[in-house]
Design brief:
The protein is of the alpha+beta class. The chain has eight helices and eleven strands. The protein has two domains: 111 residues, Phosphorylase Kinase, domain 1, CATH 3.30.200; 123 residues, Transferase(Phosphotransferase), domain 1 (Orthogonal Bundle), CATH 1.10.510. The strands form three sheets. A six-stranded antiparallel beta sheet has the order 1-5-6-4-3-2, with helices on both faces. It starts with a strand and ends with a helix. It comes from Leeuwenhoekiella marinoflava DSM 3653.
Length: 252
């Protein structure tokens, strides 16, 4: 097993190694999805999380072994890069890769646990959430800052931003980091980056107005473009879900 740890926890290498090796047997389950599983552990008195990525198919086993960085490695490296650029994400601790003979096997990503009162999805589901509009505007400013720094978070979706209240306002932490780009972003790409966040027009309008205000863009054009991007995504998502249902039906 290949293990890389952050310099901040290099003295805990053996303990992290133990967590990685015994992932199936130890730890408390935080999230258990179809593709990945996240567990919580104690490291030096602090809660940390370890995410185990689903073992890829044969094609990706070959790709990850010889041609591409694994999701775990990308998550770790992108987290370090985000923090270097002043964008918050749970403190990365390390990653591990377990080979299956000559092929890629399992991979794990470890980071500190951030206790968050909400995610962006909370704002979508609860229209009466305290300070909802204020948080939406602050989130938009956070996204603008990210764009200005040349960070394109490809999975900018409802569950991937943690919201933490601080003394002055709100902090936003990005999670699920394995798909990112670092480059200068044009306006079309920036607007498109909001498309997956919410299907609610009033939320899109609030974000578009705030983004136009701080970026010096035309407000009406920004609102129209952001809403169109949202509608296009929702339509595409709906078609994919309908196709999945049909495929499941014919597999029965």
């Amino acid at each position: 097993m290949k293990i890389v740890v952050h310099k901040s926890v290099k003295n805990s290498l053996l303990k992290l190694k133990e967590f990685f090796f015994n992932f199936e047997k130890e730890g408390s389950i935080l999230a258990d999805g179809n593709r990945n599983q996240i567990k919580v552990y104690k490291l030096e008195g602090e809660d940390i999380t370890i995410k185990a990525f689903k073992v890829p198919n044969l094609v990706n086993k070959i790709a990850y072994q010889y041609f591409r960085k694994s999701k775990a490695q990308r998550s770790y490296e992108y987290a370090c890069k985000l923090l270097e650029n002043g964008i918050l994400t749970p403190q990365p601790l390390g990653y591990a890769i377990e080979n299956d003979g000559l092929l890629f096997g399992k991979s794990f990503y470890a980071c500190k646990l951030v206790e968050a009162a909400a995610t962006y999805r909370t704002l979508v589901n609860d229209e009466n959430y305290p300070n909802r509009i204020e948080i939406l505007k602050a989130f938009t400013r956070f996204t603008f800052e990210m764009h200005q720094k040349g960070i394109h978070f490809l999975d900018h979706s409802p569950g991937n931003t943690l919201i933490v209240k601080n003394m002055e306002g709100y902090d936003f932490y990005l999670v699920d980091l394995n798909r990112m780009e670092f480059r200068e972003l044009d306006l079309e790409t920036r607007i498109q980056n909001f498309a997956r966040l919410t299907p609610k027009k009033e939320m899109v309008a609030i974000m578009a107005e705030e983004y136009a205000r701080i970026g010096g863009f035309d407000e009406n054009k920004t609102k129209n473009s952001m809403w169109k991007a949202t509608q296009d995504f929702q339509e595409s998502f709906k078609k994919k879900q309908e196709l999945k249902k049909k495929l499941k039906f014919w597999k029965k």
